[in-house]
What we know:
- The structure is a single chain.
- The chain contains 12 helices and no strands.
- By secondary structure, the chain is mostly helical.
- The model is unreliable at 254-261 (pLDDT under 50).
Amino acid sequence: ARAALEKLLEAFPYRNTGYFRERLLAERLFYEHSDRNQRGFNEQLQVSAHALDVYFIAEKLRYACEMLNYEAVLNIHYDVAFLDEVLAWSASDRYATFGAVQVYRNLVLMLKNPDEPSFFEKARSLTATSEHIFQPQELRQLYTLLLNYCTRRINRHGDVRFLYEHLEINKLLLKNGLIFEDGRIPPWDFTNIVTVGLKTDQTGWTWQFLHDYRDRLPAEYADNVFRYNLAQYHYYLKNYDDAQRALVQVRVDHRRAHAQP
């Protein structure tokens, strides 16, 4: 039975907190079926305790990321108890090889230290090299944390460098397909990408993006969103006649105005 359960765990496609939870439950089960009355050292008890530590630290850091992000976005406050202690534990060599722990640890440090971009750089790098250990939805959430950080640096500090960072992350999301929802690119994401592409003066790339991903917009918004952003593109290049021609083709539907970017 143990061999079969170990085989199932090894086949688990990710190495995220979900995996750590299943590993903890399995190790606890192995312990309960061991000789718990022995007077000597029970190795399985030690292994179970270590599995608990890994799961707790990873999950605590994951929760902390969500809480700190909401604090920054919504200007609210959460009590993230014992976070400094958990950060100190996660920095030890014992947890250095657990990719999910280190990704979440560095994202927490980024969120706790918004004025120190070096934490962003480490978090972005670790996230990109650890994509394989996370489920797609979870990975999208991690990149959203990075994008939100870029947005705050741009809006609050006028840090132009983070326009480039924002665009590069979106290029990565396009490449790995994480930007799509049900196979479609959300209109607001499409518009944000065009805006940042123009602000970083990557006009050739932006033109290509506009046309390559036009058909990936939701059908009910595709024409309007494409023409609106095409107008943005021409206006940036001072092609005012072309911008006007694109803009006058945008149909305003007051019933759907809330859905427009």
